[in-house]
Amino acid sequence: MSVERTLSIIKPDGVEKNLIGEIYGRFEKAGLEIVAARMLHLSQEQAEGFYAVHKERPFYNDLVNYMRSGPVVVQVLEGESAVSKHRELLGATNPDDADPGTIRKDFAASIEENVVHGSDGTDTAAEEIAFFFGDDGVCPRTR
Ligand code: GDP
Question: Which positions of the chain have pLDDT values less than 70?
Answer without folding.
Answer: none
